[in-house]
Amino acid sequence: MAEKQRFVIKDLKKKFNNNVVLDGIDLTINEGDVLGVIGPSGTGKSTLLRCINQLEVPESGSIEIGESQIDLSNAKKSNLKNVTQLRQRTGMVFQRFNLFQKKTALENVMEGLITVQKKSKEEAREIALKELDRVGMTQWANHYPKHLSGGQQQRVAIARVLAMKPDLILMDEPTSALDPELVGEVLETIKQLAEEGHTMILVSHEMAFIRKVATRCIFLDHGKIVEDGTPKEVFTAPKQERTRDFLRKMSLLEEPEYVI
Amino acid sequence: MTGKIFDFKLVFTQIPDLLKYLPITMELAIASTVFGMLLGLLIAIIKIKKVKVLDKLATFYVSLVRGTPVLVQLYIAYFGVPMLLKYINQQTGSDLKVAAIPGFVYAVLALGFNQSAFDAEVFRAALLSVDKGQHEAAAAIGMTGWQSLRRIIIPEALSVALPSLGNSFINAIKGTSLAFTCAVVEMTAEGKILSGRNYRYFEVYVSLAIIYWAITILFEKILKFVEKKISIPEQVEQISPEELESLRSPKSKAKAYAANHKRLGGELAWQKNRGLS
Ligand SMILES: Nc1ncnc2c1ncn2[C@@H]1O[C@H](COP(=O)(O)OP(=O)(O)OP(=O)(O)O)[C@@H](O)[C@H]1O
Ligand SMILES: [Mg+2]
């Protein structure tokens, strides 16, 4: 096995107009980490993920993946290769699934393999079926997104990400657009990924779930990392008053044994 | 001028004579539609991307074209282009032959410009109707802007735009009846010529009406068919284990595919295109 990779994010700053959303984020993620990100609404959790894969361009910041270093603030303008490279090494699971509407589940998973990785259709199909199998969706391979429940769509979206073999998976509230009865199947899939050793950043309001699967947890507030530790540390013995406040509001602090 | 007031039979017997000019009518309609759509798509992209200067120009152009009658536009093309050529010849000493340009070209240009203004709005609305999440999902897996436009966005936008584009084409067919202004003899012009000979003006126009109507109905049907063809099927059945097996192992593909091909969605149809069924 190759040496373990690290993802080092440095001095990430992003503002929208005059609204400072990320205020200097420094973050190192080790291969195999499942990093839970929690924090109040509007605090920049989504923006953090979106800056990492360049859906937003920050004012400053860089990311180091293994040997390559990418300037996040102007990768787009100076070098398209860097953006593409970065996006190939990261995968994103969206809150609203964002499956390609005019493609079947199978085609959704095959799309990037063919257009981005230039694989043959046969090879792409084989990989796609394997990934659909992993998320338990092979039976629905020929279904279009509109035929699928939210939970099923999200599982296909996860298969679409897995098929690209990303080094880092970014998940932005993957269950919060789901009906309550569908949350479980998606969490189950994510848990499975965590157990398989995928490196992930998981933004979620499912605190109990984060506690269970994350190897590390950060609390983000006003664009800064306020708390950083193991889920157990962050949830049961937060060092910062702001974290305690937040957890109290979520009524989680008083129930340290709370598990799903 | 003796005989019946209304020659009912003639309405039908002269249809074949008129139909001889149908190819010209259709060439005009198709050429101007293709030209209009391409220009329209370009304008739509310029407006969406807010390309500097060009987008102001595009807005001005669309407003101008929409605000003037086709007939006037045709005359402007017919008289304006030769003047422009003369001017260029004068200025540069070149020898561009006005007479060498067939009337067909003026007609296609004018009818195409006319359509482009309408199509631009159709494309713009359709492209904007595609959910932002589709762009983001494509970008996030590493597709380039062009790949995502071509493979994801345009196919989705096209479904939205198709009914309006179809209407635009049907209007174009009818619009070709004005091409006589550019000295093009298409169906209506031929009708005028025929009736000039036999003075059966009314009958000729009734014949023409029947033909245009029939063509319109035909294309409406074709349009409906295409719309259905490119829309997402209402329902898809789950894949059976055999079908799944056929997908997995290419060798047994052909057999299972033939047996089940009606039940399968888009990607699976690909096998058929490859002659595996
Ligand atoms: N495209 C944008 N333009 C302007 N402001 C934006 C944009 N995207 C996000 N913001 C602002 O940035 C701030 C952080 O947004 P972000 O979506 O990152 O928060 P979040 O932590 O993910 O919140 P939530 O838990 O509600 O998803 C918010 O104040 C939001 O209004
Ligand atoms: Mg968010």
Give a brief rundown of this model:
The complex is a heterodimer of chains A (260) and B (277). Chain A is an alpha/beta fold.
Shape of chain B: flat
Kindly provide the name of the CATH class of the largest domain in chain B: Mainly Alpha
What is the CATH superfamily of chain A?
P-loop containing nucleotide triphosphate hydrolases
Listing every helix as H and every strand as E from the N terminus to the C terminus, the arrangement of chain A reads: EEEHEEHHEHHHEHEHEEHH
What is the first-to-last residue Cα distance of chain A? 35 Å
The CATH architecture of the largest domain in chain B can be given as Orthogonal Bundle
Counting helices, strands and paired strands, the structural category of chain B is mainly alpha
Question: Your description of this structure?
Answer:
The complex is a heterodimer of chains A (260) and B (277). Chain A is of the alpha/beta class. Chain A has one domain: P-loop containing nucleotide triphosphate hydrolases (Rossmann fold). In chain A, the strands form two sheets. Chain A has a six-stranded mixed beta sheet with strand order 6-7-8-3-9-10, with helices on both faces. In chain A, strand 9 and strand 10 form a beta hairpin. In chain A, helix 4 runs parallel beside helix 6. The mean pLDDT of chain A is 91. By secondary structure, chain B is mainly alpha-helical. Chain B has two domains: 229 residues, MetI-like (MetI-like fold, Orthogonal Bundle), CATH 1.10.3720; 41 residues, no CATH class. Chain B is built from 13 helices and no strands. In chain B, helix 6 crosses helix 8 and helix 7 packs across helix 8. Chain B is flat, with a radius of gyration of 25 Å. The termini of chain B are far apart. The chains are: A alpha/beta (260), B mainly alpha (277). The interface between A and B is large, with 45 and 35 residues. Bound molecules: adenosine-5'-triphosphate (ATP) and magnesium ion (MG). The site of adenosine-5'-triphosphate has 11 residues of chain A, from strand 2 and helix 1. The site of adenosine-5'-triphosphate (ATP) has 11 residues of chain A, from strand 2 and helix 1.
